[in-house]
Amino acid sequence: MRDYLIEKLYETTKKPYQKYFKKNDPWEINKTELMNFPKDSLGYGLGNFHFKNHFDIQEKLEDHDIIHVLTNTGISVYEEIGMQYYLLGNGKRSLYLFMVILTGTIFYPKKIKYFMEQFKRGKQAHSFYYLDFSKMLLMPIESIQQTFKI
After folding, report:
1. Are 50 and 56 in contact (CB under 8 A)?
2. What residue spans define the domains of the chain?
3. Tell me: the pLDDT tens digits for 57-85?
4. Is residue 149 over pLDDT 70?
5. Whole-angstrom Cα distance, residue 121 to residue 88?
6. How far is CA 79 from CA 24, 26, 95, 100, 117, in A?
7. Is residue 41 classed as helix, strand or coil in its secondary structure?
8. The organism sits in which domain of life (predicted)?
9. Which of 24, 46, 49, 87 is the most exposed place for a label (fewest CB within 10 A)?
10. Which of 59, 54, 23, 29 lies closest to 43, judged by CA?
11. Side-chain half-sphere of 146: how many Cα atoms within 13 Å?
12. pLDDT tens figures, 35-51
């Protein structure tokens, strides 16, 4: 039930967040095109992530899925919340991030240890959340992970 509530909250807030808070341009690429990138590249990894999870690219939210790929974070509700803790540790600050962390902590108090581990992982990595990943799609995932200690 709590997963359902959190997912409904996300679905309700996603469109206004995309429209009013995300100022970046949508990427001009689809998941099939991403699969044509070299197998070790960030672009291929993103396409594979989308196909494996039966996702489509969400306009202006492409970076979110890139973070999943780079941090090897799953897609369950508590893992999504954990990824926001990771990003907080990495230096990201946004109203949306704080909203997810607040509601996630309230709904998943037994996962606080996991959340704190994700926060520490994010803190140990070099800050990377702000990068323009659309220009990095040809780069090898492993190279990015090593450079930023992800």
Report:
1. yes
2. 2-6+31-148
3. 988 789 999 999 999 999 999 999 999 99
4. yes
5. 10
6. 25, 25, 19, 12, 12
7. strand
8. Bacteria
9. 24
10. 29
11. 5
12. 999 999 999 999 999 99
Residue 73: exposure state from Cβ atoms within 10 A (0-12, 13-18, ≥19): middle
Rg for the chain, CA atoms, rounded: 15
Q: Residue 31 pLDDT more than 70? A: yes
Q: How far apart are the first and last CA of the chain?
A: 33
Token pair, residue 65, equals: 């899925």
CA–CA separation, 120 and 139 (whole Å): 26
Rounded distance, CA 29 to CA 57, Å?
A: 9
Contact present, 61 and 22 (Cβ < 8 Å): yes
State CA 135 to chain mean position distance: 17
Convert the pLDDT of each residue in 107-148 to its tens digit: 999 999 999 999 999 999 999 999 999 999 999 999 999 999
Asked if pLDDT for residue 15 goes beyond 90, the answer is: no
